[in-house]
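Continued from yesterday's entry.
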Amino acid sequence: MKKATLFLLATLALCFTANSFAMAPAKEIKAGFIYVGPVGDAGWTYAHDLGRQEMEQLPFVQPSTFIETVPEGAESARVINGLVRKGHNLIFTTSFGYMDATIDVAKRNKDIVFMHCSGFKTAENVGTYFGRMYEPRYLSGIVAGKMTKTNAIGYVAAFPIPEVIRGINAFTLGVKSVNPQAEVKVVWTQTWFDPGVERDAADSLLDVGTDVLAMHQDAPATMQAAEARGAYVIGYNSDMRTFAPNAFLTAPIWNWGALYTQLANEVHNGTWKSEQIWAGMKEDLVRLADFSPAVPADVQALVTEKANAIKAGTLHPFSGPIKDQTGKVVVAAGQTPTDGELLGMNYFVQGVQGTISK
């Protein structure tokens, strides 16, 4: 599914260099979006659609088109071709599994700009984009570490791929930075969007004494479980506090609008070039949602201080020394993993209770 096998990214290690090819200026932008889920998921697809709406406010952007719940694979090529036939000159394909279809369609339509989310294949008219979500994940871990009373924190996780593992590790490192006694318990759902499965996983974590939940899922089911059981919860993708007004603390969220607006301007101005974008909090592609009143002022101040340090480049969530679950040093003192190492992360850090199932 979307974002899904970023193992391949590790081998290719993303070279962030621009292609020399540039598109001609586009007087008007007619953008099309391919979504893997429903806009109403309140999560991944909903966040992308907020970005689409923000981009659409530019005066040279025509009303855009979005097609939701598009299966990955061959079916996505048919849908992308449909956008081409209808005259779209900027097409966003927002799931990892659309990668090959995007490249194939782009080969036959060199006058159209394609942007693929989370992939690693580019072409003269195809770029990729993703965000360093591990940065706000780390910050949300600080909040969880400060708010837990049982020192048992639950994490409802989708698939055991590097992206999700990286997020769990960053979150745990944030937790441990302020609360060395706390542990993060992981349950895998093997789905991005299945509210029933996600709710069962969240409840199973609450059943074993966790009092703060975090999630890498697209539905608000984890939020609702925490609300029903009197626990705290860290959201994901978008600000989901309406689903858990008493339980919500904060959430690592996407700000796709900033990037979509930038890319539309580049296509309009004729300055767009193919590149692989992996941006973070400094570029405002990822951020931490506003705190709920439940988060004490001193915790808010600490997290804000750490957020400013990340943006300034003086704090990296994965700066060593870091040990894995076995006690082996995986990042030496004074060292920071390369982007390739981060993109291929396949181990849990100390403090995580769970296994990386294959």
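--- second protein ---
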Amino acid sequence: MSSSAEHATLPSGHTSSHCTSATDAARLTDILRSTVLPTTEDTYLFRRVSSEAPADLAGYDAEIERLQSLLGCLQSERELLSTYTERCRSALSPIRRLLTELLTEIFDWCAPSCAESIENEDTADMELERLAKTHLLQFSAVCYRWHEIAMGSPKLWSTIVTDADLWNDTDIRTEHLLRRLELSLERGANSPLVMELGLPHEDDELQSSILKLVTPHATRWKDIYLWIDPSSVELLAHMRGNLPRLESLSLSASTVDPYPPGPAVFDLAPRLTRLTLTGWPLRLPEIPWGQLLDVKFMNNEARDITCGLDILSLLQKGAEYRMDIDCVCHALTYLRT
């Protein structure tokens, strides 16, 4: 049997001392599958291959390593070109031409519905989302400009909705939740504050901690909804005379228990024209009734109708007044003339 070993040229230009043919490979397979011993010619070939192959294999390995390195460089260069191309397209994107004011409005419109008001169906996950303003954090991760707009626009951080009764249903520590609330207040700067705040029913310490964060911003209060124990209104006493922007106030009682007389809080609010009282037990809070233009009184007990009628006598001419007793069966609307 004649040897078919030949010289082969590697891609790098080096020369391999042999190249195994299909015939040689088939012959070797037959020998290994049988008890036939190699011939003298076979033995010579196998010994020469065994002796010379390591050098050839080393050459192949070196060439493969060189090609892999070249491939890595090509892939890196391609990635750089692809990224640069995408950035060029981004630089020409129409959205980059939008005014900052318009983008701010778009970001505001994209707020989830749970960030607009408290609902009975709200969950702890929804509370965490609106407290952290997750939609703004997502916008801020898009690009540098969006980050600057999302983080640096006080208007976007000046609508605060939180129901602290849900905080105990989360795995996050209370101090971290308070910090999220504090961040929103800080980022809102001096922008008018729209706030819907559900204070905890049976956690006086948490209620006090929340009020300590929000009351220093009293000068920003514009449209405020407080779900609060009437007896806790005294915690707001230091804000009296410090509500220059307050235009709309909603007070919803978290309990129907009678409460002792407390200090006035909202009677010195020069811009207050809209008031809603929900479930407020018996005694009315001190309010500048004579300047109100739109008043709603909603209670569940028929005995509160006297209190509701007392309000009517306090309003100025032309004020619109809605009294809803039992919230379902009776709804009376008055226009004081």
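The first helix runs from residue 22 to 32. The radius of gyration is 39 Å. Will compare against the first tomorrow.
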